[in-house]
Amino acid sequence: MDYSAYRELKIRRLEPGVLEIVMGEEGGRLPVATARMHAELARIWLDVDLDRDARVAILRGAGKGFSAGGDLAMVEEMTRDFAVRARVWREARDLVYNLINCSKMVVSAMHGPAVGAGLVAGLLADISIAAKNARLIDGHTRLGVAAGDHAAIVWPLLCGMAKAKYYLLLCEQISGEEAERLGLVSLACEEAELQAKALEVARKLAAGAQTALRWTKYSLNNWLRMAGPTFDASLALEVLGFTGPEAKEGVASHREKRKPSFPDAD
To answer: 235 near 149, Cβ under 8 Å?
Structure first.
């Protein structure tokens, strides 16, 4: 499999059967989901699925954290341009479904802030591992749009409806340690041990019976497929929200680093 077309994602083979997918630059700022990275995150799972030499893929962020969410310039474009909204909707849909349908095992290793498209992949991974001091945040309602992306399809299943509503409606930050306690992630460990733990898990998966693992994953992911209509509605409502005044105020407040003042709802 040739991954040379990828620019925002760095892909390398750690050892036989184990692929590493890295968002961002080592030692750099938080990985931001630019328009190109958003597209690559949606497409990569199709290529991993077809890669005969890959049994497991590890997804991690470089630099100061796992992911910083969407590029604000792209988000502003979504409030103004129908074609951009339509493209991002398609990519966001494909990111979720392509990851769910990828037959290979996926392990995520989350440290620092984990927000946006990166968090989508991080929580939908087959084995999600977070540093205890990681900070997981679904910030959609703070931005003035519905919690689309992955939230409606997987949060209630992982941590229950009551906790899902609490964190998604209030945009409350959740630590990796608390996320493990609630069942939102598979494991939590010290940040210094994160990459080693992800590789340890990946090696175990790569050494396992691949057909048995893939068929088990396929069967379990039918729980997510059954929630497909819920996800589709949430994503459509999120994208619709980018046409309204709340998203414009949400973007402006992020730009100006202040608390948003949303208009009254009808």
So the answer is: yes
